[in-house]
Design brief:
By secondary structure, the protein is an alpha+beta fold. The protein is built from eleven helices and seven strands. A four-stranded mixed sheet has the order 2-1-4-5, with no helix packed on it. A three-stranded antiparallel sheet has the order 3-7-6, sandwiched between helices.
Length: about 280
């Protein structure tokens, strides 16, 4: 049986230029309940202090009320709770934990938007996508290096990527496919909501809080247009030899047949100017 989500995916695949202007109604109470059930039961609570087990005691009614607030335009995103986890290099990675109901709504929206953007994302992208992960990315790196004429490899790592996403640009990118005002307003609420750390509220002008369910998808949309399409449509046709990109979230491996091609692309990446390639 073809579901509404399946139909959205079909339409997106049929026409890569199609804009979806009326999809918010697909965020039903049933979808919200499914999203709640998909959450980690042991996840940390947000600023509201509500954990999975507590919400579960009256989950169906809680979800109905949440859905009603969404429909009536009364839903408000809560500030994120900032925590830090250690990185391999000894530094600290900031993680922003949303309130439980914000996780529920974001998860439902991610499931909806994935139906659209999975038709657009390129094969080179492996991070935070259904059925894909770091193992497939590593296998592709090995395949390219071992079976293609690869002599030069660039490693690309975007520093503090989630914190530096330009929000207006991100919304413009999402708007290329999704013009539903209700969905766009939800996304703007989530990326602009403040962070509470040590009892103080902080509001930034850039970024999307790493730790929110919506953030990985938004980061993929951003780099799909900013990096993946640029490399595929602008860089590769200008190279003298073969060139490949394998990306996992904000980390990427760029493989080149020729040293000159690698050097030209490396200068472009370091300068932040894509037009020099």
């Amino acid at each position: 049986m073809c579901t509404d989500i399946d139909r959205i995916a079909e339409l997106a695949k049929e026409d890569s230029q199609r804009q979806f202007y009326s999809i918010a109604h697909l965020i039903t109470a049933e979808k919200l309940y499914e999203a709640f059930r998909s959450l980690r039961k042991d996840a940390s609570a947000g600023v509201d202090g509500v954990k999975y087990a507590e919400y579960e005691t009256n989950a169906e009614e809680n979800v109905r009320q949440l859905h009603r607030r969404l429909v009536e335009g009364k839903y408000q995103a809560q500030p994120l709770r900032r925590v830090y986890i250690p990185k391999e290099n000894g530094q600290q990675r900031p993680i922003s934990i949303p309130a439980l109901e914000d996780k529920v709504v974001q998860k439902a929206v991610v499931d909806l938007l994935n139906a659209i953007y999975e038709q657009d994302f390129l094969e080179c992208s492996y991070g935070f996508r259904p059925g894909r992960g770091q193992h497939q990315a590593l296998e592709e790196v090995g395949r390219v290096i071992c079976t293609r004429p690869t002599g030069w490899v660039l490693e690309l790592d975007i520093r503090s990527y989630f914190d530096n996403i330009v929000r207006d640009t991100l919304i413009e990118m999402v708007g290329k496919r999704v013009s539903d005002g209700s969905v766009l307003r939800l996304i703007q609420k989530w990326i602009k909501v403040g962070v509470i750390e040590n009892g103080k509220m902080f509001v930034s002008k850039t970024g999307t809080g790493q730790g929110q369910p919506i953030s990985p998808l938004l980061s993929n949309i951003y780099l799909h247009y900013l990096l993946d399409e640029w490399f595929e449509k602008v860089v590769k046709p200008r190279m003298k030899g073969e060139a490949y990109e394998i990306r996992f979230a904000d980390d990427a491996i760029l493989c080149f047949q020729n040293k000159e091609d690698a050097e030209r692309c490396g200068v472009s990446c370091r300068s932040g100017s894509r037009s020099t390639v």
